[in-house]
Amino acid sequence: MYAAEDEAQKLELRGNALLAHRRSKIRPIVDEFERWCEAIEPTLLPSELLRAAVRYYRNHGKALFRFIDDPLVPIDNRQRSESFRTSPSPDSTCSSLAALREHTEPRSCSASSRLVARSESQPRLTSHGHSSASGLIAECTGSNSTR
Questions:
Q1: Are 135 and 126 in contact, with CB atoms under 8 Å apart?
Q2: Distance from C-alpha of 106 to C-alpha of 77, rounded to nearest angstrom
Q3: Mean pLDDT of 32-50
Q4: Contact 17, 3 (CB under 8 A)
Q5: Cα 24 from chain centroid?
Q6: pLDDT at 21
Q7: What per-residue string of b and e applies to 7-19 under the rule 16 or more CB within 10 Å gives b?
């Protein structure tokens, strides 16, 4: 999907041209994903994280893929999210800009894993494919315990 959207941006497509591009390139991917979700969901146990992800899509899919049918809606809110990042302040206790950056942006696997894995009782499905929060943190930080 992102490759198709990047192509549209490089071609500077707008309005109806962008709409046609998204419908021809991205809609088939989404349709295939929907069919896969329908096929896989009945085979998953209620306790499986993949089932939670499939259900999330089923509940929010219309909003997640609204951009396909509206050329004014971006594929994601990445630019908007970046505008909310914390800015360095003069009274910061960080000794360097690099240290400050580590506190304000998830620049590494361990930083992002702490954001994803709130607690062992609430494991989250992540792009790393881990089934538990502690497994994610252990692999990303090289430790055997959560922090």
A1: no
A2: 17
A3: 96
A4: no
A5: 23
A6: 97
A7: ebeeeebeeeebb
- Calculate what percentage of the chain has a pLDDT beyond 90: 51
* Predicted TM-score (pTM) of this structure: 0.53
Span of 41-45, 76-80, 89-93, 117-121 with lowest mean pLDDT: 117-121
Alpha-carbon distance of 109 to 95, in angstroms, equals: 22
Phi-psi category of residue 142: left, alpha or beta, with phi > 0 → left and psi -120 to 50 → alpha: left
Report residue 90's pLDDT band, with 50, 70 and 90 as the boundaries. low
137 burial type by CB count under 10 A (0-12 exposed, 13-18 middle, 19+ buried): buried
Show the tokens assigned to 45.
Answer: 């146990």
